[in-house]
Write a structure and sequence with these properties.
The protein has 313 residues and is an alpha/beta fold. It folds into 2 domains: 3-92, no CATH class; 120-311, 3-Layer(aba) Sandwich (Rossmann fold). It contains 10 helices and 12 strands. The protein has helices spanning 60-65, 68-77, 81-92, 110-117, 125-129, 138-141, 163-169, 182-194, 231-241, 267-276; strands at 21-28, 33-40, 46-50, 53-56, 153-157, 174-179, 200-205, 217-223, 242-252, 279-281, 288-295, 298-311. Strands 1, 2, 3, 4, 5, 6, 7, 8, 9, 10, 11 and 12 form a 12-stranded mixed β-sheet that branches. β2 and β3 (46-50) form a beta hairpin. α2 (68-77) packs antiparallel against α3 (81-92). The longest helix is centred in the middle third of the chain and has 13 residues, at 182-194. The chain is globular, with a radius of gyration of 20 Å. The structure holds S-adenosylmethionine (SAM) and zinc ion. S-adenosylmethionine is lined by residues 103, 158-160, 164, 178-181, 184, 206-208, 223-225, 228-229.
């Protein structure tokens, strides 16, 4: 974690939420912490930094139970005695049901996203068959479009391995990428270092309980995530973090259905809901092709809608 971001963050304990975190670094460099704690001066909550990744979640125990293989690797790979003993004592509390999240390394979606974000080979079978060339990265590149005119400090919600965050960093003064998957955030940080870019940082955080100072962002983006979350909780969380006149970009295929089999979302419903929550929508419904390769013989193809909204009040 880049040390200087500590003053931008706030505690995620819901009964505190104060921007009074301080950093204890046990391993790292002058500018970056690799192992340490972010601690709250007010409620004394402690949030670990593991392999350079800050984990700013209200319930660390629950998070560890949901990615037990990843948790085991944290213990094996930690170097400082403080983080090792913190993880061991957390491990001793794990008794009940555990599993490994689908977006963590070894999970079913991890490699799919890794391949999708790391450019398709030029001879990809499906893409070569199609008459109109579909560019898998087109939708990420749209974020730097001149007409969109994003500026200031940005947040990329559900950033996975950071392709959209890296695009945004070309336009914005600083951008944060957040995701619940530790493995994705670890990979995103590797890509950030490989590109030698210093105006971004990646954090494990929950979109519905954001760890940032209030009204901090000029631009917020959520790409292919809103159908995975409680929309109202997400918008409450976004509204606490976005500045007046800030821009919110939602890009989604709305492909999830609820238990009754009816479509849970569609573009016009989302647009109406956004207006109720204080946004002015700037564009019409769109159908932008987006493709993901699941394995050698199967692909997911979506038309995503690109919603550009401005916070009015
Ligand atoms: C469908 S993927 C989209 C990834 C990326 N935005 C893209 O378009 O390639 C959904 C992502 O949202 C993340 N996610 C799901 N629920 C989340 C939450 N509550 N807070 C933050 N990230 C979340 C997942 O870990 C996953 O990386
Ligand atoms: Zn606190």
């Amino acid at each position: 974690m880049i040390k200087k971001i500590v003053t931008d963050l706030c505690c995620v304990n819901n009964s505190c939420k104060k921007p009074r975190l301080y950093l204890e670094s046990f391993l790292g460099t002058k500018d970056e912490c690799i192992e340490g704690f972010l601690s709250c001066k007010i409620c004394k909550s402690k949030y670990p930094i593991i392999q350079g990744v800050p984990i700013l979640l209200e319930n660390f125990h629950e998070y560890a139970c949901q990615r037990i293989i990843t948790f085991g690797k944290w213990i094996v790979n930690s170097n400082s005695s403080q983080i090792k003993s913190f993880l061991k004592s957390e491990g001793a509390k794990i008794r009940g049901h555990t599993y490994n999240d689908r977006y963590e390394e070894n999970g079913i979606w991890y490699n799919v996203y890794l391949n999708t974000h790391n450019n398709y080979p030029s001879g990809d079978r499906l893409l070569s068959l199609l008459k109109k060339q579909i560019k898998p990265h087109h939708v990420y590149k749209m974020l730097t479009n001149e007409d969109l005119n994003l500026s200031g400090i940005g947040l990329d919600i559900g950033c996975s391995i950071g392709s959209s965050t890296i695009e945004l960093s070309k336009k914005l003064s600083f951008v944060f990428g957040i995701d619940l998957s530790f493995s994705f955030i670890l990979e995103a940080r590797k890509r950030m270092h490989n590109r030698n870019r210093r105006n971004m940082e990646f954090i494990v955080a929950d979109a519905t309980n954001l760890p940032f100072k209030s009204k901090f962002f000029h631009s917020i983006v959520a790409l292919n995530v809103i159908d995975r979350l409680d929309f109202v909780k997400l918008i409450f969380s976004v509204n606490s973090s976005i500045k007046k006149n800030g821009k919110l970009i939602l890009i989604d295929p709305y492909h999830f259905v609820d238990d009754t089999g009816k479509d849970k979302f569609d573009s016009s419903q989302i647009r109406k809901k956004l207006e109720k929550f204080g946004y002015k929508i700037n564009n019409e419904e769109s159908y932008i092709p987006w493709i993901m390769k699941i394995n050698e013989r199967s692909y997911l193809f979506y038309f995503v809608d690109f919603i550009e909204a401005k916070k009015d009040n």
